[in-house]
Specification:
This protein is an alpha+beta fold. It is built from three helices and four strands, in the order E-H-H-H-E-E-E.
Length: 89
């Protein structure tokens, strides 16, 4: 793995912890930190590429094997990365 940025502390919301398949979360985190933004449109992917250069928040979107949608957000200061469901936002 070739990380593109620091994750900081990695946390998961209780809702996401209870809803997501446990094997899919670490795999998605690897994708996120590697620059595979998952199921975002081209505009949001471009925003993430800009965020890498300018130090803004990074958002990725994935589905687990049970088709539960979840997001991974790394804060602009790279202090924390959160795994959450859209309804947690």
């Amino acid at each position: 793995m070739n990380p593109k940025f620091e994750l900081g502390a990695t946390v998961i919301t209780p809702t996401a912890l209870n809803a997501l398949h446990p094997h899919d979360v670490p795999a998605a985190i690897v994708r996120h930190v590697s620059g595979d933004w998952g199921e975002l449109d081209d505009e949001d992917k471009a925003a993430n590429e800009g965020a890498l250069k300018h130090g803004h928040r990074i958002l990725s979107a994935y589905h687990d094997r049970n088709q539960v949608k979840f997001w991974i957000i790394t804060e602009a200061d790279r202090s924390v990365t959160t795994v959450l469901l859209p309804e947690d936002y």
